[in-house]
């Protein structure tokens, strides 16, 4: 190429090089390009690996082409706009049919004594075409699952549930037939089937058919309604209502001019004598006349059959001496001797009977559940353990995992080992499985309902009712609770619903008795103001209540002298802090740690834990163990999550022996607190009511911050069942002779009647 510079023609050879991706060109000297090859050299040279993009064609011709020939648009080109799939016709696909289900099965015959093989027989399978879409039977074909859905045990919402146990098909068919017979079809043309006397009236209208060739027969229709004057040609509602005041309803007995009226009056007298209820009167009146004959109806026979008792109370007062002879090979053995009620319950489990264990808290109800799980492992079946709260499910999963190994957990947010022989889940998950017809129900032998008194809950109790009703007949139930007052009545309802006996096993007293105290101290000087209210024998001590009242009055008089008539306001943060410091100091001196402090407010729990910054209840070795365990647990969190404010706060609290447990705590921190409390490293645990729901984490002492709670509607005192459930956490079996329950009296001492009703 040439370039003019200073009006001098110079032959300069250079190259164009494109740099970057924006089309920037630079001039560089040509390398080894002679003048002869100048025309054949390619300009510009490239530095981009992809090369120069293609030149965009002009669009004028394309637009002109589309405007002149509309068919040339791409949307009309089938080959370019739609994907063509080459398909070869296959006639044999028309001959494909579904595989017929197997009609027969092979049954093995063995000698029952020796087990020797005797032969084989072929048996016909009834209803082999039944599936989960058209049958409620357990004999229906199993659901075909994909590889991904095999791990899901909840079933499908398009399945039909299995037939509930206790519902007899024959009884339902008979009831439907009786209902159809008792309500015959009415003939609208037959006036004798019409209701002539309204319920509660003594007279009415006699409806008769007027002959077609007769005029003025309206008088015959209203013959039962006198004093209306001359009947018009047509009777309207306004005419009838205008003469209602002139009606003489009792004069119908005197009018005997028409034969049908006499017959109607006789039927009215019979109805008065029998005094039928309103519903029965209506049924008899709408039936045909030939069926309404009270004088020929046979008298009602009183039921002489005795009512069947579905609940059987087991006597636990006499020991079971032949227990090990009756069960020589136990499915599971414990390192300690079983109580009488545990042996009685295990005997019923061996007979595959349903059991209701209504034992006191910390009596050992879990032993019965453990034996049921061991039996299912021995029989190669499945057991489902249900609980009302996730904290209890998590704890049982950890315990049973160490004991049996093959244990799974299914809750709303966690699914672990769903194909295990023992599944721990919330009751709502089990209800979903029953309604969705899960195939797990086929292999199910036991369903354990822990804390079954939740059936009395106003919001969630219906879940327990539905599960108990929907369970198939081959499944036995184990009911566990410590706070059901009417055990026999509840067991009778369950047995009557499921048509099977429910054996009730209960205890007479707690293995570790409780002592209830009132604490009125609020400083280190008054930390010894602990007054016994209910002793270990369950006797209410009135003198202790009187002493607590006197101590409160004495302090109130001193405060009024020092601070005026109003004194120190009760319930302020400084007062609460002093109260907790004094009660902790008192418990430390009396060796009553560890403690569970039930507080019915998450905000109050946070305030109490923040006020105890000066409290340190752990030794150096315990601090080291807590530090190692805590950091090992939170190592599963991400780097940013390990420095969350709640994580740092809990590390400081736990190292000082304090713990917090409520619904606002992160799940992993909640489990850390539970496990450290089980190890005895948490000395004081501030918790809400949910911690007491069956969690096997007993302490030496239980403290109630207050006896009033908010139930979602208003404030009220604790119910006796709620108080017993929480107070039952006190007293560790084998470690403590008695359990201590302390009620803090921050304000006034509660009324004696309220305490008596709640504690006894």
TrEMBL record:
Instruction: List the SMART domains.
Output: DEXDc, HELICc
Q: Which residues form the Helicase ATP-binding domain?
A: 346-502
GO molecular-function term, one example from the UniProt record: RNA binding
Q: Which reaction does it catalyse?
A: ATP + H2O = ADP + phosphate + H(+)
Which GO terms fall under biological process for this protein?
nuclear-transcribed mRNA catabolic process, 3'-5' exonucleolytic nonsense-mediated decay
Report biased composition (Basic and acidic residues) as residue ranges. Answer: 140-152, 269-306
UniProt entry keywords in alphabetical sequence? ATP-binding, Helicase, Hydrolase, Nucleotide-binding
Region entry Disordered: which residue ranges? 129-152, 260-306
Q: Which Gene3D superfamilies match?
A: P-loop containing nucleotide triphosphate hydrolases
Iron-sulfur recorded as keyword: no
Q: Name one Pfam family in it.
A: Ski2_N
Q: Which residues form the Helicase C-terminal domain?
A: 611-760
Q: Name one GO cellular component term.
A: Ski complex
Query: What is the protein name stated in its UniProt record?
Result: Helicase SKI2W
Give the originating organism. Answer: Candidula unifasciata
Which taxonomic lineage does the organism of this UniProt entry have?
A: Eukaryota, Metazoa, Spiralia, Lophotrochozoa, Mollusca
